[in-house]
Design a protein that fits this description.
Two copies of one chain form a homodimer.
Chain A (H helix, E strand, L loop, with lengths): L4 H18 L6 H7 L4 H13 L3 E3 L17 E3 L3 E8 L3 E8 L4 E8 L7 H18 L4 E9 L2 E2 L5 E4 L4 E4 L1 H4 L9 E5 H5 L1 H4 E3 L2 E2 L5 E5 L5 E6 L2 E2 L31 H4 L1 H7 L8 H10 L2 H25 L3 E4 L3 H19 L9 E4 L6 H16 L1 H7 L10
Parallel strand pairs in A: 3-6, 6-10, 13-16, 16-17
Antiparallel strand pairs in A: 1-2, 3-4, 4-5, 7-8, 8-9, 11-12, 13-14, 14-15
Helix pairs in contact in A: 1-3, 2-3, 9-11, 10-11, 10-12, 11-12
The structure holds a DNA duplex (30 and 30 nucleotides).
DNA sequence: GTGTTTTGTTCAATGATGAAACTAATACGC
DNA sequence: GCGTATTAGTTTCATCATTGAACAAAACAC
């Protein structure tokens, strides 16, 4: 069973499907044959299987094909009947989204709330109710997987080891979460890592603008994700990305983690508010508003955050050679305010800046980015190996309902 | 040409060969069939091709096989007629080694010298002469590739952008290096990244003790390499691993790179010597000797280096989740002296240390580690895709000489 | 309306693996 | 010493997916 004829078919199914999803414009069977360096005969057979499985769909002939001589091809697109459930528990909200293979959000349920210091079990029951409703909102989508984004360190077996801002520790999330209809299990992942996925991908399987970047996330704390060559760097245990606890200044203020001078003490939402002379619960957008309006203390706080970010991110860039930094989470609000100092610091402290200057960008506004990314990841699992899925429902009709 | 029958064969050849090299004890055809989840018939066919190409060899029947009922199998081992040339230019030496697939060093030529501020062309000519002699030392090895390790930032096209300690800038190394007999081109790579390879691999294709670690290298400067899941993290342009310029303390001493408080200013060989009140060119082993002997300034210098390493490496571990740190280069000499402070700092500053404490190890003494790793990398290229090699020499006999 | 062009389909040939039968070589038991 | 059990390696045939070429379909262009 190393790689036999069946294995070849599985690989080529994935290749054709990936190529189809990656196409900026709906491809025909002939286009896919070209893209995957195979013959039209093979591409057509593989496409037929993918159509039967609902992974691809034949689009109307009008779908923006360039006109010209010759028989017009049949434009193909991702299937709209297959989707995944993305879940998110954050300090500010609970969310559930259903996303299909085209990238369309077929259902979105969000409940804003302050979940700092909450108890896991009730929150997870609430999340399950929300997920139920989202699934009911999209009855004609066959959901092939579910994943939950959590702002903390997650172990391989689905146990949340620690989410400092939620105040959760050693929570067996996968077990506690009530069963969802038609879904075997809910996978669990880190919020920043999952929120970075919609930056890497414009839609499931379709490359986004960047293949290599650091994404900074978070609200109170600062989480991060490093994406290289389109894949998140997860580390030995999947705990990579704790940019918030990189030391900015060993003589700096004490951090709740036991260390001193962590980035979080400079650019975390509470530290930022405190430095601006405001109550710790002040939203970052308010600090940014005051800094823009000319408030001296607010401006100083923002500068301090920018300098801290510069030092911590210089370490990341020096060690990982990532040319792009995307500011997400509450750091979005600071955006242009921190850019000058941040880019200047990077230019000075990054060794390779002489050849390539790191670029700082602001992530698009998207409160449920992590849930969206969670859904994408589940869809990518399907796309990466469609073989078993197709075998599992041979000759099965398109699902008629949830 | 996506994946056809020929592609299957290529993949399975690589699978069988990789499995054979990875085996701790010489495997038989039947063992390989088991290891690659294929049938004995297929494994035997693939092995025969690999034998014909010299990639595998049949060992004597006495090669440590467990005895028992049944027909004894034919133990197989890596071919001893195929090898690669590993080259190294360091501030302290020039080296050329020929390593075969078994991992045996068939030739080793080293010339110690101080190459700080040297001129590239003469050094590269000298390296070529050394390589010639090494190749002549191993006439019965067919050399399939060559790679040169350089202590600096290397671009994809083989240009050395900057090697601060050598004092080289923008050197088109691949062009300047005189041609070597029977070798099309010499690839170029970063010294730390290549020196880390023999830590990942006990022999070509044979896993070493660690799959995930940070390797610290260097003499004057400090280079680093991060290995995750057995593969070095190279970054967007291949410039990852500049641990030496991670900021330890933004208020620290100025660094030649233009920044302040870089790790190099704490744990670099010159900084270490200076902090110990010794001439900058003092070898690190001398500083270590004095510290061990009780010299107060030397001990302070070592402590300062250990603290700096702790802060910089905490950043690396927080961001990348690498559980093992291997001290190579001149940091080997400090070894046990820095371990207590280093491990303590890591324990305090690494967020995940509560679950997994990072381990600090000292690399084995091996002055030509980078050259060795360079040879391994070339051999791995062959192992990863033996198909073209086998086709290129169909029915060719074992080479009778260089 | 006819010719050209490109798409999609059909069909025999190719090539590698899988499965099973067969031969080879050793240990074990009597 | 000899037969049996057991495992290794080889041979042969069937299977399966791709390839390549020929064929049918559907549009544009003159």
């Amino acid at each position: 069973m190393a790689v036999d004829a069946g294995g070849v078919r599985a690989v080529n199914l994935a290749r054709v499907l990936s190529a189809a999803l990656a196409c900026p414009t709906p491809p025909t069977r002939a286009d896919l044959a070209l893209a995957t360096a195979t013959t039209r005969a093979t591409a057509a057979r593989l496409v037929d299987d993918l159509l039967a499985g609902g992974l691809l769909e034949e689009l109307g002939a009008q779908a923006g094909r360039p006109r010209g001589p010759g028989r017009p091809g049949t434009p193909l697109g991702p299937g709209s009947t297959l989707g995944a459930l993305g879940l998110q528990v954050d300090v500010d909200r609970v969310a559930a989204v259903v996303v299909d293979l085209t990238g369309a959000v077929r259902a979105e349920r969000v409940e804003d709330d302050d979940l700092r210091g909450s108890r896991p079990a009730p929150v997870l029951r609430r999340l399950a109710r929300l997920a139920h409703r989202a699934l009911a909102d999209a009855p004609d989508v066959l959901v092939v997987g579910a994943r939950l984004a959590l702002p903390g360190i997650v172990a391989d077996d689905g146990v949340l080891l620690r989410a400092p801002n939620l105040g959760w520790s050693d929570v067996p999330v996968a077990e506690l979460l009530p069963d969802l209809p038609g879904l075997a299990a809910v996978a669990v992942g880190n919020e920043a890592e999952l929120a970075a996925v919609p930056i890497s991908f414009a839609a499931p399987g379709r490359p986004g603008t960047h293949r290599d970047f650091v994404y900074l996330s978070g609200s109170t704390g600062i989480g991060g994700a490093v994406v290289l060559d389109g894949h998140p760097v997860r580390g030995r245990h999947g705990w990579a990305g704790e940019v918030g606890h990189v030391t900015v200044d060993p003589a700096g203020p004490a951090c709740a983690c036991g260390s001193t001078g962590c980035l979080e003490q400079y650019a975390g939402a509470r530290a930022l508010a405190a430095a601006a002379g405001l109550p710790e619960t002040t939203r970052t957008s308010e600090v940014a508003r005051r800094a823009t309006a000319g408030d001296a203390r607010a401006r100083e706080a923002v500068e301090r955050a920018a300098a801290g970010l510069g030092i911590a991110l210089s370490a990341v860039v020096n060690v990982l050679d990532v040319p792009v930094i995307v500011l997400g989470g509450h750091l979005r609000e600071l955006g242009e305010l921190v850019r000058p100092t941040l880019e200047r610091t990077l230019g000075r402290r990054v060794l390779s800046a002489a050849w390539v200057t790191p670029v700082v960008e602001v992530a698009p506004e998207r409160p449920v980015a992590a849930a969206l990314g969670a859904a994408y990841v589940e869809l990518h699992r399907l796309v990466a190996d469609p073989g078993p899925w197709l075998e599992g429902r041979t000759a099965a009709a398109v699902p008629s309902g949830g």
